[in-house]
Amino acid sequence: MSIFSLFYEATNGIINLGTSFNPHQLPNTSNISKMKDDDDRFLDLMQLSLINHNHIDIDTDLEPELDTHSDNHCYEVVDKANITFGKTNCGGRELHMCGYSYQVKKENVKTTRWRCVVRSPACPVTIHTSNVDDSVIHWNGVYHHHAPNGNRELIKRIIARIKSRVLTEPYPVVLIAEEEIRYAKLTKAELAGMPLPSQMESALKKYRRKHIPALPSSLDFKIPLLYQSTWSGEKFIVADTQRKKVGGRLIMFGSNEQVDLLLNSTTWFCDGTFKTRPLIFDQVYIIQCLVGDEVFPAIYVLTSNRQRKTYEEMINIILQLAANRRVVLPVQTIVSDYEEAWLLAVEKMLPNVCRLGCWFHFSQACYRNIQNLGLAKLYEDDPNIRLELKKFIALALLPRDQVKKF
User: Fold this and answer.
1) What is the DSSP-derived secondary structure letter of residue 353?
2) In sequence order, which residues have a C-beta less than 8 Å from that of residue 400 and are 6 or more positions away?
3) What stretches in the chain show pLDDT beneath 70?
4) Where is the signal peptide (predicted)?
């Protein structure tokens, strides 16, 4: 027989060892059977992967264990008036009562048998509830071998919010976890039971990889719904063209607000990037627009090549967007690099627009010519030669009528 120095009883408070008592008696639960369910004493051991150095598995159930050698208090098991239900990580039902949590072990037409979630070592406590009103109708009379964790349900709700955001937001998982913990405004006691963001990082990254669609390996793919709209539910795909006309596939992204800014701007800034492109595409082309004194990205384009016909199709789609909105395109100036295919496409599709070269790209082109002419060492070592060569770069800043043609 187990020896208790103290044990809790709802009606009598704390009872000394000398007081006679029935260890299977359940205070304030007269309708509960006082039978022992020996079949539940030996349950399948399901090893929980808890905190292991700096890692925690978010898909497991965390429950602090009680050292029965140093703490032999007996905690209340049943409180019929305070029962709540939740969800497990796999979507199953979970019951919470008196700081303990239970998962479904067996269910029939009339009743459901629940067992404690702590499985390592297996906690033998089981209870039965009615399927009619979810009331507790039976407890097997065994006490938990671990302390209650009243914060467990709260922690699970926070982790559920973290996991939800991990699937819908591109931010680092640690940042999302830190924000949700901060928003929860936990007490010191609640924070003590909450896993650290760094401990959840590995499991959250694995969770994200498992649920987010894999990167496509060819241009023949369907865009997942997750990437077809903004966080506010607004349409984000401007165009998706896959035909010979563009030599592969052309996808344009932008919100309605971004498109409106572009269609009402007089100055565009255009450039492509190759280092950050998806591997199955040739580049990411970005069209930005000037609004007041600020420049905003308006359209993101994934292209399969850098050919003139592809750029013409891009501009044609923008013209169609303007026509659909009954907007006369006010763009007067387009600033870009010196890519010939793009400049020819702009000249054909927007003949009245002034084309300006980007100062940054112009400076790069000048220095490349300095290198090609074998003047790089003189440019670096001789300040007089460096000054003269820089004057060529400065010519681009002068008005046209002040630059003589040679």
Assistant:
1) S
2) none
3) 1-75, 89, 150, 245-246, 406
4) none
CB under 8 Å to 138, separation ≥6 — which residues?
Answer: 32, 33, 35, 111, 127, 128
Angle between helices 173-184 and 197-211 (to 10 degrees): 120
Contact criterion met (CB below 8 Å) for 329 and 263: yes
The contacts of residue 305 (CB under 8 Å, 6+ apart) are 246, 247, 248, 282
Within the chain, what is the greatest distance between any pair of CA atoms? Answer: 114
Residues 6+ apart with CB under 8 A from 317: 238, 239, 241, 252
What is the Cα–Cα distance from 45 to 95, expressed in whole angstroms? 20
Q: Are 35 and 141 in contact (CB under 8 A)?
A: yes
Whether 261 and 291 have beta carbons less than 8 Å apart is answered as yes
Helix 197-211 crosses helix 152-168 at what angle (to 10 degrees)? 50
Tell me the sheet residues that pair with 14: 8
Q: Cα–chain-centroid distance for residue 273?
A: 25
Torsion region of 292: left, alpha or beta (phi above 0 gives left; psi -120 to 50 gives alpha) = left
The dihedral built from the CA positions of residue 332, 335, 338 and 340, taken in this order, carries a sign that is negative
CATH class of 225-357: alpha beta
Considering the entire predicted model, what is its pTM?
Answer: 0.58
Three-state secondary-structure class, residue 294: strand
Residue 348's pLDDT is 96
Instruction: Please report, for the chain, the start and end positions of each structural domain, with discontinuous segments joined by +.
Output: 153-211, 225-357, 363-402
Residue 267 pLDDT: 97
Q: What is the CA radius of gyration of the chain?
A: 34
Determine the Cα–Cα distance for residues 280 and 91; give it in Å rounded to an integer.
37
CA–CA dist 28, 321 (Å, integer): 71
Q: What is the pLDDT of residue 48?
A: 35
**pLDDT value at position 245?**
67
**What pLDDT score does 66 carry?**
34
Q: Report pLDDT for 353.
A: 96
